[in-house]
Amino acid sequence: MSDRQIQIVLDSLWPLLRAGVLYTIPLTLISFVLGLILAIIAAVIRLYAWKPLQAVAQFYVWIIRGTPLLVQLFIVFYGLPSIGVTLDPLPSAIIGFSLSVGAYGSEIVRASIQSIPKGQWEAAYSIGMTRLQALRRIILPQAARVSVPPLGNSFISLVKDTSLAASILYLEMFRKGQEIVARTYEPLLIYCEVAVIYLAFSTVLSALQHMAERRLGRSSAA
């Protein structure tokens, strides 16, 4: 690389990191928490609720899993204004990502709940618990341990998927990279730099995930 290119990389590092810390990570955390709540609700409805409600939850999962996330973001940000609903980039991104996490996460939560042996239910019923009490006190805590690895993978994927928010003008890390490219005319350098930062975030999160899995594994063994 030339001295100019090296200087461009160094000058762009802090703006990219700042965008990642101030915009990408908060968007990821908010969307994941809301999506996880939605995933638990959808999974419980699909397993135990009234049949029409199960159909609604199944339809939601089918729609979200069957359409591209980018299209969903465009519908929320660019499509809803045509019916009088105008949202800023941040709430649009949160809605889009949360719905996506909720749909995919509901499959993980549902499978985790179903993996708990029926004897756990029977034991809860034998001491006088209702189905809701058994689910809340016995089943969900055990299912949470089972779901940690796939949910951890979903969280890491969400960090990378937030780059799609650039398409709806949200100023996250990839969008900031696009702005820097427009000034420097160095797309290869800047986009590679963005990719390296995403890789660093994912590597740290993967390490934390492995630590959590080991801790849960020791706890289960005990």
Structural summary, described in words:
The model has no long low-confidence stretch (mean pLDDT 94). The longest helix has 46 residues, at 3-48. The chain has one domain (3-221): MetI-like (MetI-like fold), CATH 1.10.3720.10. By secondary structure, it is mostly helical. α3 (69-79) runs antiparallel to α4 and α4 packs across α6. It is built from eight helices and no strands. The chain is flat, with a radius of gyration of 21 Å. It is 84% helix and 0% strand.
Summarize the structure.
It contains eight helices and no strands. The protein is an all-alpha fold.
**Low-pLDDT stretches:** none
Structural class call reads: mainly alpha
Helix content: over 70%
CATH architecture level-2 label: Orthogonal Bundle
Write down the overall mean pLDDT.
94
| Strand fraction | under 5%
Q: Count of DSSP E strands? A: 0
- Could you give a short account of the major beta sheet? none
Number of domains: 1
Count of individual helical segments: 8
Instruction: Spell out the CATH superfamily.
Output: MetI-like
Summarize this structure as a short list of keywords or feature phrases.
0% strand; flat; mainly alpha; 84% helix; MetI-like fold; 222 residues; single chain
Summarize the SSE layout with pairings:
Blueprint: H1 3-48, H2 51-66, H3 69-79, H4 89-114, H5 118-126, H6 131-161, H7 173-184, H8 187-221
